[in-house]
Design goal:
The chain is α/β, with parallel strands linked by helices and 216 residues long. The protein has helices spanning 3-7, 17-20, 30-45, 57-65, 74-97, 110-114, 116-131, 154-164, 201-204, and strands at residues 10-15, 21-22, 27-28, 49-54, 103-108, 135-140, 169-173, 179-180, 192-193. It is globular and about 50 Å long. Bound molecules: glutamic acid.
Length: 216
């Protein structure tokens, strides 16, 4: 186990859509989810509190609803999320139950972390769930989020959740194993940066466009 994980008591893990959903078929990658839940169960055995921030609702739902590939209109992403979220919640619930753990669904909107009263309320709900031994699975409430008032990006949501619950460690799981100086496989000489001690203009300039339709 990495030293950051070994030391941390409370860990937030963000799961990107590209890992959880097969882009071509638009279905859940069940074997990957099982392996993830094995790891979470192991962390729990070692006394860690784990909070998941999981994407995948829109990617799953659009397939189930038959929304054609390509960029989504707001109403289509809201409708897809409504269908996909229930599917996602069911998958987490049964995977955790099989490992003796209780999954809890927490859907938040931007206002829940911006407005003090709602922020305190969300924080206290998550802390009650952790105290009672559940594994909170957080996502944005995409069905009611509008373009102007949304996180849009679960990396951002995960960062907010991590600070809200005073997590010791935030892990972003994606299909790329770290920050590269250029998109890996793009032909450019892409080097992985193991440690970024400071966000500089040069680091910011490494941000590029999305790699797939599932990413933001
Ligand atoms: N909340 C979106 C979903 O569950 C994902 C946002 C993101 O990809 O960061 O589909």
């Amino acid at each position: 186990m990495r030293p950051e994980w070994a030391k941390a008591r409370r860990i937030v893990v963000k799961i990107g859509s590209a890992l959880l959903v097969d882009n071509e078929a638009g279905v859940l990658r069940a074997a990957w989810l099982d392996a993830l839940c094995d790891d979470i169960a192991e962390l729990r055995k070692r006394g860690k509190e784990v909070i998941l921030v999981s994407s995948g609702a829109i990617a799953l739902g659009r397939n189930l609803l038959g929304v054609p590939k390509g960029p989504l209109k707001l109403e289509d992403s809201q409708a897809s999320a409504a269908v996909g979220q229930i599917h996602l919640a069911h998958a987490y619930e049964s995977a955790f139950r099989a490992r003796g753990l209780v999954a809890a669904q927490v859907l938040v909107t931007l206002g829940d972390t911006e407005e003090r009263r709602r922020y305190l309320n969300a924080r206290s709900t998550i802390s009650t769930l952790l105290k009672r031994g559940a594994v909170p699975v957080v996502n944005e409430n995409d069905t009611v989020a509008t373009n102007e008032i949304r996180y849009g990006d679960n990396d951002r949501l995960a960062a907010r959740v991590a600070s809200m619950v005073s997590a010791d460690c935030l892990v972003l799981l994606s299909d790329v194993d770290g920050l590269y100086t250029a998109p890996p496989g793009s032909g450019a000489d892409a080097k992985r940066l193991d440690v970024v001690p400071e966000i500089t203009a040069e680091i910011e300039a490494m941000a590029g466009d999305v790699g797939s339709e599932l990413s933001r």
